[in-house]
Specification:
The protein is of the alpha/beta class. It is built from 8 helices and 14 strands.
Length: 258
C-alpha cells in the first residue's frame, strides 16, 4: 500500500491563495484511493478552520484528514498529565484543547507553546520563561519546531526560534509535537495503518518536512514552492525527489510506478 502525506502551507497554498494545480492534485489522490493525511505545524487555527480555508480554495478535505500539533499534544496530555496546563497558543486554537484544564499561574502540570505570530511580545515571552523556571519538573511542550514560513508579505518567523530561545535560557529541552519530530510523522502513519517505507511526504521545508520525514523512514519529495530556496539543496539533505510543485505530483507518481 502506497501512502501520501502532504504539507499544507507552501505546498497547497500560500497565504489565502491556492497554489496552481493543488486542488487537482488532491482530487487525483482521492480518486486513486491513495491513503493520505495533511500534516501542518500551523497552530494559529483549529482543524475546522483549516478545512474551511481549503474548501474556499476548492480543495476539499475532512477535519479528520488533517493532523496538527495541537491534536497530537492533546492526545499526549490526556495520557501523561494530571493537572492544569499553561497554554500559549492563538485564541482560535484553544478549541482544540477544550477538554484540557488550563491555567497560566501557580502550580501547573505542563507548559504548551505554539506560534503566537504578531502577538509575541517581551512580557509574554518572559512570562513563559518564568513559568518554566518556577516549575522545573513539568513538561515543556512545543507545537512544532519550524523556523519560518512563507507569508504573503515574505518570510516570517515561526515558533522554532522562540522555543530554542527558551531552551537556551532555561537549560531545558522541549518535547516537540509537530514536524520535524519523528513521533508526529509516526502518528500519521498509525492513523493510516501505513508503513514508513511505502510512504511519501510532500513538502516545501527541507528540514521540517524532508529531513524530518526521512529521519522517520519516510521518503521526502521536495517541491519548488512556498519557502523553497535553491540553497536548500546545498544543506546536506538529499530528498528522495524534487518536483516543481504539487501540480506535478500525479505525473511524477505514475512515472515512478508508485
Amino acid at each position: 500500500m502506497n501512502t501520501l502525506l502532504f504539507d499544507m502551507d507552501g505546498v497547497l497554498y500560500e497565504g489565502e491563495q491556492a497554489l496552481p494545480g493543488a486542488a487537482e492534485a488532491v482530487a487525483w489522490c482521492r480518486s486513486q484511493g491513495i491513503p493520505h493525511r495533511f500534516l501542518t505545524n500551523t497552530t494559529s487555527r483549529p482543524r475546522r478552520a483549516l478545512a474551511e480555508k481549503l474548501a474556499a480554495m476548492g480543495i476539499y478535505v475532512t477535519v479528520e484528514e488533517i493532523l496538527t500539533p495541537p491534536v497530537a499534544a492533546v492526545e499526549w496530555l490526556q495520557q501523561h498529565i494530571d493537572g492544569p496546563v499553561a497554554l500559549f497558543v492563538p485564541e482560535a486554537t484553544r478549541e482544540e484543547f477544550a477538554g484540557i484544564e488550563q491555567s497560566d499561574s501557580g502550580k501547573i502540570a505542563a507548559v504548551v507553546l505554539g506560534d503566537l505570530g504578531t502577538a509575541w511580545d517581551f512580557p509574554t515571552y518572559n512570562r513563559i520563561f518564568r513559568l518554566l523556571m518556577e516549575n522545573p519538573a513539568v513538561p515543556f511542550i512545543a507545537l512544532g519546531l519550524t523556523r519560518y514560513w512563507q507569508a504573503e508579505d515574505g518570510l516570517r518567523l515561526d515558533v522554532g526560534p522562540f522555543v530554542k530561545g527558551l531552551e537556551y535560557a532555561t537549560g531545558r529541552e522541549a518535547l516537540v509535537m509537530g514536524k520535524p519530530a519523528a513521533p508526529f510523522f509516526e502518528t500519521a502513519l498509525a492513523q493510516l495503518g501505513a508503513r514508513a517505507e511505502e510512504t511519501l511526504m510532500i513538502g516545501d521545508d527541507i528540514r521540517g518536512d524532508i529531513d524530518g520525514a526521512q529521519a522517520a523512514g519516510i521518503k521526502g519529495v521536495l517541491v519548488r514552492s512556498g519557502k523553497f530556496r535553491p540553497a536548500d539543496l546545498e544543506q546536506g539533505i538529499t530528498p528522495y525527489a524534487v518536483i516543481d510543485s504539487v501540480a506535478a505530483l500525479p505525473a511524477w507518481w505514475c512515472g515512478q510506478g508508485w
